[in-house]
Amino acid sequence: MISDYLKNSVTRVPDYPKAGIQFRDITSLVADGRAFAEAVTALAEPYLSQAVDKVVGIEARGFVFGAALARELGVGLALARKPGKLPRATCRETYTLEYGEDALHMHLDALEPESRVLLVDDLIATGGTALAALRLVRQLGASPIGAAFVIALPELGGLAALQRQRVATHHLMEFAGE
């Protein structure tokens, strides 16, 4: 059970980035040591008894939670980054945004074939970036054991899209209709 303290540590920013959007800002959560520790512990809990070989943090706030979660699980961290951010050979997956297209990259040697991988990001909405990261993981021959998020916006379909791809999801809190 997630505490009210943790849920209340997320700041609601009305009309950002445009009118009608209720943006959920997790920077206030990570700035609060108690809330951040509670979030990392709660994210890790379902995976403590599972074999996890690597955590994949999705750019950019997924790096914050991914690094802490990798430390908690005693495994390494691989990064799914925006174009032009990784210095060595990469694989690439594109995804659609409401205003165009973007991509994620991973180093070709970021994951061992058949390794068991946990995807991590701060928030899941439509699932575009998470699904692109999932395709990267599979492209590198690894197996996703799950995807963990601090916040889910279930009405936007991302959780369901991951579940249709046979990826178990875990999230700490959700907000409806946003």
UniProtKB/TrEMBL annotation:
Catalyzed reactions: AMP + diphosphate = 5-phospho-alpha-D-ribose 1-diphosphate + adenine
Q: Name one Pfam family in it.
A: Pribosyltran
Q: Name one GO molecular function term.
A: adenine phosphoribosyltransferase activity
Listed InterPro entries: Ade_phspho_trans, Adenine_PRTase, PRTase-like, PRTase_dom
Enzyme Commission number, as recorded: 2.4.2.7
Q: Spell out the subcellular localization from the entry.
A: Cytoplasm
| UniProt protein name | Adenine phosphoribosyltransferase
